[in-house]
Design goal:
508 residues; alpha/beta; Rossmann fold; Dehydroquinate synthase-like, alpha domain; five-stranded parallel β-sheet; 16 strands; binds nicotinamide-adenine-dinucleotide; binds zinc ion
Length: 508
């Protein structure tokens, strides 16, 4: 788990918020100032007094680099309060940003002054606290802005600030791409590489409101143009692609420019494909606005459009950055939430039992921040190991071998069909590996997803499965579970598939 860094002025509440997060999660609280004091064997005031501020900054920088280099062991991460001046050191800032997410607790100078009253603060010695703080803040404001992934309003009760900060995360995918998860949009959207002039934003009807905010943010960073494409999979067509390419040519979109996709999986697939192919590949940033987009489609670098069949044309192309806004996801209408939940709980079944427990405990009112970061972490970990889908990535197909056939033949939505497909796969796992199928079925029921569909369609479904098999050249394989979080990919015969289908009510 990456570090959760807290930066901000003295008095912004970094230690209080950090301690509060450590008390309610399994993150360990670390205070950089205390570590410096411990190592030096004297107080910060003492260090500044005896050796000067430069020496103190060096010690602080060394501590930051150490915490950035050392990966936090196992599942437990850290929440780290830093000194107010860490943002003065660009190398330290870069190290923090790469080892996790940086949250800036921001509050006006007057509020900060009221909070720090009589504390021992060497850098404020002998001055009128409020006006000195206002001076420092004026100088550092843009540095905090540059350093932080997210600005958090800290002029609020600790509990509220902590609740927002705790949802922030940065997850690296294959070293090529970073996923930022936060309460809203990040403070800056475009990756900080050089020479950027233009961004083209692609959105769909349902993502229009979010695209408006993204456009405003982009315009503070580059020239930006918004293009809306048709809704849902109608966007993933050669016709739309032709329209987009001609607009990009008119705009003279260059090698250092960026494609920004804002929407559900249809938009992120399309925008990714445009970025992969324009000038043989330019940078892309994705802002998924559906839960399925956030936990599945935007993660892992698969892009594509539909030509004759679904996703038959595409390419592997990592976005530089994926920015997930929890605020957007928490306002999704129920059907879209349910679609994405199916893929999120799938991530739990194949790799993270705690995710399954969360859905069991909360049903459809699950805690969005934890579910999203865990599901993204599962997909990021699997694709990092296997970018081009030769081995381990196959486990992401849990529930999809039969699920896809059920989707096509029975006309269910993808999420609903995958839910039924996962129950069928659980039944085959029960038959072959002694797995208890209720451990898959019950969490899905708890979410309100379908777990059976009584119909006589097995022959038609098996024809689709055979066709998919030819296209993917993987043989007739199915992801089975020995246990929650312990998948195996096994060759199966038609009898096994029929057994799975019969278990969810699908007969010949
Ligand atoms: N690349 C991958 O690895 C991958 C993985 C899974 C799925 N996909 C693709 O993703 C697509 C499905 O994704 P999807 O389910 O997100 O569908 P989608 O993009 O078609 O969006 C579904 C609907 O939600 C609307 N919408 C988007 N954001 C909204 C918001 N914030 N509030 C309200 N409505 C909103 C859209 O306008 C659309 O009507 C498919 O094309 C599928 O092939 C790709
Ligand atoms: Zn799926």
């Amino acid at each position: 788990m990456g570090n959760l860094w807290l930066v901000g002025m003295m008095g912004s509440g970094k230690s209080t918020v950090g301690r509060s997060i450590a008390a309610t999660t399994d993150r360990r609280f670390i205070d950089v100032d205390s570590m410096v004091e411990e190592r030096a064997g004297m107080s910060i005031a003492g260090i500044v007094d005896e050796q000067g501020e430069v020496a103190f900054r060096e010690m602080e920088g060394a501590e930051i680099r150490r915490l950035s280099a050392e990966p936090a062991r196992g599942g437990t991460g850290r929440v780290i309060a830093t000194g107010g001046g860490v943002v003065l050191d660009p190398a330290g800032v870069e190290a923090m940003r790469r080892s996790g997410v940086v949250a800036w607790l921001d509050a006006p100078a007057g509020v900060l002054a009221g909070r720090i009253g009589g504390e021992d603060r060497p850098l404020l010695a002998g001055s009128d606290v409020a006006s000195r703080l206002a001076e420092i803040l004026a100088v550092r404001h843009s540095l905090y802005h540059q350093a932080a992934h997210y600005r958090i309003d800290a002029d609020r009760p600790v509990g509220e600030v902590a609740a927002e900060v705790v949802g922030c995360a940065r997850i690296a995918v294959d070293d090529a791409s970073e996923v930022l998860i936060g309460p809203g949009l990040p403070d800056r959207l475009l990756p900080a590489s050089s020479g950027r002039e233009q961004a083209v934003l692609i959105c769909q009807p349902g993502s229009r409101p979010v695209a408006g905010s993204v456009l405003e943010l982009l315009r503070s960073e580059a020239e930006a143009t918004l293009i809306e494409v048709p809704d849902r999979d109608a966007a993933k067509s050669v016709d739309t692609l032709a329209v987009l390419y001609s607009r990009l040519a008119e705009l003279n979109l260059g090698r250092h420019d960026t494609i920004v996709g804002v929407g559900g999986g249809a938009v992120t697939d399309l925008a990714g494909f445009v970025a992969a192919t324009w000038l043989r590949g330019i940078e892309s940033v994705l802002v998924p606005t559906t839960l399925l987009g956030a936990v599945d489609a935007s993660i892992g670098g698969k892009t594509g459009i539909n030509v004759m069949g679904k996703n038959l044309v595409g390419s592997f192309w990592h976005p530089s950055r994926v920015a997930i806004s929890l605020d957007v996801l928490s306002r999704l209408p129920e059907p879209l939430l349910l679609e994405g939940s199916a893929e999120a709980v799938k991530a739990g079944f194949i790799a993270d039992p705690r995710l399954v427990d969360l859905f069991m405990e909360h049903g459809p009112s699950f805690p969005m921040a934890e579910v999203v970061s865990r599901a993204v972490a599962v997909k990021a970990e699997v694709v990092s190991e296997d970018f081009r889908e030769t081995g381990r990535r196959a486990i992401l197909n849990f529930g999809h071998t039969l699920g896809h056939g059920i989707e096509v033949v029975c006309g269910l939505s993808h999420g609903h069909a995958v839910a039924v497909g996962m129950v069928a796969a659980a039944a085959v796992s029960a038959d072959r590996l002694g797995f208890d199928e209720s451990r898959v079925r019950v969490p899905l029921e708890r979410l309100g997803l379908p777990t059976r569909i009584d119909t006589a369609a097995s022959d038609a479904i098996l024809r689709i499965v055979q066709r998919d098999k030819k296209r993917t050249a993987t043989g007739l394989r199915m992801v089975l579970l020995r246990d929650i979080g312990d998948p195996v990919v096994e060759y199966v015969d038609e009898a096994a598939l029929r057994l799975g289908l019969a278990a969810v009510g699908i007969a010949a």
